[in-house]
Write a structure and sequence with these properties.
- The structure is a single chain.
- The protein is built from 15 helices and 4 strands.
- With 317 residues, it is mostly helical.
- The protein has one domain: ABC transporter involved in vitamin B12 uptake, BtuC (Orthogonal Bundle).
- The strands form 2 sheets. It has a two-stranded antiparallel sheet with strand order 1-4. Strands 2-3 form a two-stranded antiparallel ribbon.
- Strand 2 and strand 3 form a beta hairpin.
Length: 317
């Protein structure tokens, strides 16, 4: 294999693989290309995509956030609990968002203030969030008849398009704007690529790292509100399944767009690819464990392609 071919495959190989997956299911999975199913795919990946956006912000500053799934579950419990006990919907939404943001800020302060590696700091916060979620609920989900206006946030449709998909697209566009068109976004990228050079260049590196982790927490809170609205319930394990899939989406995106760099557009494409894979396997009647096996393969392959970036983030102090 010559150098040009290797370079081409390095840049576009994963994207071509994703296209191949789409074409495979389009041909062999019945009803895959139906409008109903494609809209269902967008709805299914909404939570995954929003969480992936948050993880991307943290990773952009060369920090890992391994707490976002449990933080999201905690924020879901806070939101759902307040609604369950008849508090105003506006208060429930606000507290859900603040729970996520607060956890993200706590992560940032531990990492920058106490000099604890983000891998350890966020695992600790994740454990605390998990414990609090079970303590609040006593291990039992909050369920009941919730206000229709709140439920609409997760189950409604506008012109046939799921509201969840619309929220996802709006958040993805805002995230992309922040990263590409604002000074904060550019400073976050510089911080992640070379924090010492960024510091010498006048960038507030600690603030950027706190911001990246705070945005990850905030988007976990946003996901929590939408998740509670969609399920009309709130359990302490509501978002547990999103941990690996969100990480896989971000890592997969790093192999397709701006190779080796965490980025919002890549994370969206990665989430879409995983969503298509999951949906196609279900339509073809594949056993549930096949998706887990393929997800593990995706993570290993993605990390191997972007090894230097992930290694730096995992052990950054």
């Amino acid at each position: 294999m010559n150098k040009k071919t290797k370079t081409f495959l390095g840049k576009y190989g994963t994207a071509l693989g994703g296209l191949g997956v789409f074409l495979f299911f389009a041909i062999f999975a019945e009803n895959f290309l139906s409008t109903i199913n494609l809209l269902n795919v967008l709805k299914q990946i909404s939570f995954l995509t929003i969480l992936s956006m948050g993880f991307s912000f943290a990773l952009t500053t060369s920090e890992l956030d391994l707490s976002f799934a449990n933080v999201c579950s905690l924020a879901t419990v806070v939101t759902g609990g307040l609604i369950h006990f008849d508090y105003p919907v506006s208060l429930a939404i606000f507290m859900g968002l603040m729970t996520g943001l607060g956890a993200g800020l706590l992560n940032g302060l531990i990492v920058t203030g106490l000099k604890v590696p983000s891998l350890i700091a966020t695992l600790a916060v994740s454990s605390v969030a998990n414990g609090l979620a079970f303590w609040i609920t006593e291990g039992v989900a909050f369920v009941g008849r919730w206000p229709e206006a709140f439920v609409y946030l997760g189950r409604g449709k506008i012109l046939g398009i799921p509201v969840l998909a619309i929220w996802m697209i709006i958040i993805a566009l805002v995230s992309l704007f922040i990263m590409k068109q604002t000074r904060l976004g550019i400073h976050m990228v510089f911080t992640g690529e070379a924090d010492e050079a960024a510091r010498l260049g006048g960038i507030q590196v600690k603030r950027m790292k706190i911001l990246g982790l705070a945005l990850s927490g905030l988007l976990a809170g946003v996901t929590a509100v939408l998740l509670a609205a969609s399920l009309s319930s709130a359990a302490p394990t509501s978002a547990g399944d999103f941990m690996l899939t969100s990480m896989a989406a971000v890592l997969l995106g790093m192999t397709m767009v701006e190779p080796g760099r965490p980025n919002v557009l890549g994370s969206f494409i990665g989430a879409l690819t995983i969503g298509i894979l999951s949906n196609g396997l279900v339509l073809m009647g594949a056993p549930y464990y096949v998706q887990d096996i393929l997800l593990g393969i995706i993570i290993v392959a993605s990390v191997s392609i972007s090894a230097s970036t992930i290694t730096k983030a995992a052990f950054n102090v």
